[in-house]
Amino acid sequence: MVVHQLLSAAGPVDAVTGQARAYRHAFEAWGWGGSDHAALIDPRMGRWIKPLEKLEAGPDDILLLHYSAYAPRLRPLLALPNRKLLVSHNITPARYLWPYEPVVAVYCSVGREQLPDFVRSVDVAAGVSEYNVAELAAAGARTTAVVPIVFEPPTAVSGNGSSAAAARAATEPPTILFVGRLTPHKRHDLLLRAFALYRRHRAPDARLRLVGEPLSPAYAGAVRELADQLAPGAVTIEGGITPAALWERYRHADAFLSMSEHEGFCIPLLEAFSFAVPVIARPVGGIPEVAGDAALLCEDEDLAVLAELLELAVSDRELRDDLSVRAARRLAAYAPERALDSLREAVLAAAGG
Amino acid sequence: MTEPEQALARARASVESMRAAGAYRDDLAGFRIEPADVVGVPQLIEWALIEPDAANLYSTRRLGAPITFIKRLLLRGLRQYLGEIIAQQTRFNIHLTAYVNQLTERVEALERGAPSPPQPPQSPDAVDGA
């Protein structure tokens, strides 16, 4: 079997690129050949990914297209006679982006408009969650499959994360964490307000750590300004940190709070589960199916309710332990070998086998 | 102890009782995300004025400082030319935004059934061709 992966863009901190790399490792382990190509390649990338023009696909080779936004350079490949699998990584609704980053909004908007052309031109359309797959089916996909994100739990964490829980000193002020790009649909504005309420009414010394690359310097500036206004000196915003540093942030977190209004999958949930960090989140997109019963899901508009959930998640020892046990079960459900089994089945289905 | 399934109800009850006691009545003003399918004219006017930030001109390579230096040197050398491009593009943006604004007001006036504001000026070509 020969599978070529095709991406619009490849970069060192790009989640889609990371998945393509994990797929390639699996293909090699299965004895499959092929190469990986991108239309735009970040100079920091190694040589494992090649320019799109270098693609040399034989007639029996499978083409695996990663789709996450408008992909004009991938579109001509749909005309090739090869069997094709499309993996959709979900597209952010443009309505969150028009006021802040209109160029990105155009890519998302056109990407969504052209999704039907892509899914109808491939043999199998796969999504990272049931939520994602429902969108593909609505776009006209003939055959669909769920291929969850391949998530490798941090190796430094053992068992159900009890070691990580032990790393948190009881005397330290509570630390709330959120990991995700600084983009409007993640609703950092609501997150900061919920945290400010928690700090004012429950934990005056609490800290908030936001980890993620900003959409733009201007947007990062707006988030920073709001943080300084609502909780001066209590909010840290970081981007471009190493995986080891990220694991440290989880290890010292008392709760993970997400106010995101759109998620196709939400890898940080599984990361938080790995460190037995209680999760509070909005039940949107793929979050309910990934979190299962291991997170406190809340759709209340009243941010004071979120603040009280934070208080419970931080201070109720037995609640934390219960969530930790459930989190371990969710991690087992999303074990990398299970995700790769789904991938293998999807590729074989695309190959007609 | 709180079961995860009970946590939300308990949090809501706690808010209710605390609010009755005077807590959670904060006014948290400031930056707020407003999802929108289209941006309004005020935002277009703000964007019409092009002001590229030279700080965004850098190399992403690990040892990219010399490349950043060269890029910024080129920017200095081309400043006059780039200034001209920016001026031309800004002029176009502002006029187009003003034109869109006039059309928006005219459509709104027509929808209200009120006398419409003056029509946007037509270009000489359009007049000749009419």
- As a percent range, the share of helical residues of chain A equals 40-55%
Q: Give the biggest beta sheet of chain A.
A: 7 strands, parallel
Annotation field: number of helices of chain B: 5
Strand runs of chain A, count? 13
Termini of chain A, distance in Å?
A: 11 Å
Overall pLDDT of chain A = 92
Query: How much is the average pLDDT of chain B?
Result: 85
Number of strands of chain B: 0
Backbone shape of chain A: globular
Please count the helical segments of chain A. 12
Give the class of chain A from helix and strand content and strand pairing: alpha/beta
Strands of the biggest beta sheet of chain A: in what spatial order? 3-2-1-4-5-6-7
Task: Report strand % of chain B.
Answer: under 5%
Give the chain pair forming the largest contact, with residue counts: A-B, 50 and 36 residues
Radius of gyration of chain B: 27 Å
- What order do the SSEs of chain A take from the amino end to the carboxyl end, as H and E? EHEEEEHEHEHEHEHEHEHEHEHHH
Multimerization status? heterodimer
Q: Which residue ranges of chain B are poorly predicted, with pLDDT under 50 across at least 5 consecutive positions?
A: 126-130
Order of helices and strands of chain B: HHHHH
Ends of chain B: how far apart? Answer: 80 Å
Counting helices, strands and paired strands, the structural category of chain B is mainly alpha
Architecture overview:
The complex is a heterodimer of chains A (353) and B (130). With 353 residues, chain A is of the alpha/beta class. Chain A contains twelve helices and 13 strands. In chain A, the strands form two sheets. A seven-stranded parallel beta sheet of chain A has the order 3-2-1-4-5-6-7, with helices on both faces. In chain A, strands 10-9-8-11-12-13 form a six-stranded parallel beta sheet, with helices on both faces. Helices cover 60% and strands 0% of the residues of chain B. In chain B, helix 2 (41-48) runs antiparallel to helix 4. The model of chain B is unreliable at 126-130 (pLDDT under 50). At the A-B interface, helix 5, helix 6, strand 13, helix 10 and helix 11 of A face helix 1 of B.
